[in-house]
Amino acid sequence: MNPSGESLELVETGRPKTGIRRNREPTTWYMYILYIIGALVSFYFFVCAIGLLSKGFQLMTGHSSDSIFSSSAVTNPLAGVMIGILLTVLMQSSSASTSVIVAVVASGSLDVSTAVYMVMGANIGTSVTNTIVALIKMEDREQFRITFSVATVHDMFNFLTIAVLLPIEVLTGVLVWTSGEIVGWFDLADSDVQEIELFKFLTDPFTNLIVRVDEEALGIIADDSANSTDVRILKIYCPTNENPENKCQALWSQFGWSDIAAGGVLLVISLVMLLVSVMVLSKMLGKILGEKAIASIVEKIIKYNSSDACCAESIVGYLSILVGTLVTFLVQSSSVFTSTLVVMASVGVLDVHIAYPLTLGSNIGTTFTSLIAALQTTGKALEPSIQISLCHTLYNVIGILCWYPLPPLRAVPKIGAIGLGNTVSKYRWFAIVYILGLFFILPGIVFGISFLGGWAIIAFGTALLIPLILVLALKGLQGYARENGNNLPRALSPENTFERLPLYLRSLEPYDRWLGKLLPKKCQFHDEEITVEISIRSETDTM
62 with 218: CB under 8 angstroms? Predict the structure, then answer.
């Protein structure tokens, strides 16, 4: 949609394909049983991994959590966002990264008001996978344009959402307050509720074979951290009536490791277990549902969306959000779902308009994993763990309310994605620059600057964001005026703004020529222009 209330529709060349070939042998009943068993086992180890992660952080930071997690490199909101991006990009799973954040909160090493910014960053980092998948069509410029647009509409939504909600959260703390109120309704702080063990009775037999944490020692450290340096958090002895110095049967109790060393090794092992269990769980659920189940569901949505039924497009949009939520919850991976959408776009099945609401639903569906991780915790850790997982859900729901119900705002992420698709189809090397810059280099730079203090980040962010916002606002104003045949004041016209700048400040053409001397010929695209036809149709035709 454009701001005048009309919808912008990308006109594809040729007729989109409406089906996907399925040459697949039917799965036998005993294979389904094996897949179900595999899913249950991987889910069990996923929950165990969360418990081990929490214990690992307790061992590593139990004596110094106040100093480690109170530094500006962690507590600064922008730095927290960058930590969330880097953590998710490195783990290649927002489900895993948000589960790690929940585990850190459950360990008491990180409070909810700090962790909420890491969750925001994790939401951005999860979109790197499907953006990378879009590179499969790099050889075909036209298909690459469509595929990259579908992939990056997820990015555009996440960037726009954090641009709105990050400053609001910093100023008001609305996500933390709202999630705290919701948790308060269930009275989880009550002592009787704290004794509920949701998954612990299943996971304790396994985790206690690996490590035992002395809860009494943690209480002593919390009460008098300055005089508790000799207190061991790793439980070595489990006294009995017959033998007061009976050694615990846990594996970690058999070694002479310090708390920090034991926690470090446990963190590495539990992270590997977490990643493997998430991947296996996603794979098993995909097998149970069928390898082409997602594609089949999306095809039905496309067919209904293209029908002449009353309000079909409007109804399908909200239905697609629900479908994206449910399917992502079932496969326990937003990356799997959104990457499937990218693959379908690469064969001409869907475009950015159909993919956008499905992607929004996927953002909500992936939050259930962190809720499952939170339910693994017990005692005083239960309330903050559930609260941070609710922050994740609220963040995505509010983002959708900002950028979907109103047609003019609904069009903004799609227009941004289409524009980016046009750019990378002409300069394909820019796709690599985009991925490396936004998901690796920029978060790394900001995180490094965060060690210099809060004012350093504020100065860097101001110098970066203010020019960017002004440029985007002016570009949007000029585009709106061009679409509606309006005339801007002469001072704001392209001839008196961007066209007065040197070519290297307003075009990628000089960089393309320079890189053309270094890159293979197939990566050079300055021989012809790419244009995108946009059709305008009245909103009354679809609402």
Answer: yes
Positions in the chain short of pLDDT 50: 1-24, 65-67, 191-196, 225-226, 291, 307-310, 312, 523, 525-543
Question: How many other C-beta atoms can be found within 10 angstroms of the C-beta atom of residue 299?
Answer: 18
Spatial contact of 60 and 252, defined as CB atoms under 8 Å apart: no
Q: Three-state SS string across 190-234, please?
A: CHHHHCCCCCHHHHHHHHHHHCCECHHHHHHHHHCHHHCCCCCCE
Strands 534-537 and 7-10, by their bridges, are antiparallel
> Could you give the maximum distance between any two Cα atoms of the chain, in Å?
92
Contact, 526 vs 509, CB < 8 A? yes
Distances 541 to 289, 307, 336, 353 between C-alpha atoms, Å: 36, 12, 34, 16
Task: Give 262-288 pLDDT, tens digit per residue.
Answer: 888 988 888 888 778 877 876 777 677
Task: Tell me the residue type at 541.
Answer: D
SS3 string of 392-456? HHHHHHHHHHHHCCCHHHHHHHHHHHHHHHHHHHHCCHHHHHHHHHHHHHHHHHHHHHHCCCHHH
pTM reported for the whole predicted model: 0.71
Helix axes 77-91, 442-450, angle to 10 degrees: 140
DSSP 3-state of 76:
coil
Coil, strand or helix at 485: coil
Residue 222 pLDDT: 55
**Three-class SS of residue 247?**
strand
Q: Which two tokens stand for residue 283?
A: 């794979």
Residues 504, 485: Cα–Cα separation, whole Å:
29
The per-residue pLDDT for 7 is 39
Q: 299 vs 304, 320, 345, 493, CA distance in Å?
A: 9, 11, 12, 43
Q: C-alpha distances in angstroms, 305 versus 319, 350, 542?
A: 10, 11, 10
